[in-house]
Amino acid sequence: QVQLVESGGGLVQPGGSLRLSCAASGSIFRINATGWYRQVPGSQRELVATITSGGRANYADSAKGRFTISRDNARNMVYLQMNSLKPEDTAVYYCNADTLWPGKVVSYWGLGTQVTVSS
What we know:
The chain is mostly beta strands. The chain has no helices and eleven strands. The strands form two sheets. Strands 2, 4, 5, 6, 9, 10 and 11 form a seven-stranded mixed beta sheet that branches. Strands 1-3-8-7 form a four-stranded antiparallel beta sheet, with no helix packed on it. The radius of gyration is 14 Å and the shape is globular. The model has no long low-confidence stretch (mean pLDDT 95).
């Protein structure tokens, strides 16, 4: 199994910045891609950004140009730098890891961290 723990959320004013962190533990060697997703009450969880073990990043249109995903394989950490935050970025942000097992892919989730963008 893989355990994921997010941190770094909080209250920030529009235009501000936050950096989310995700600490991974457990069967780290099985992690392929990691990513950040977000969810607001009453809506489906949506992709924010993903990054492969090789460092290739993918972003939702809403995140392009403002957010940067990165990973530190040596420290088993994944980060999401969020700049120019908008009220519509308010959500619970979840860390995700897709792991490779014989014959299957298993996805793990953290418990989430709240991000609130408000003046």
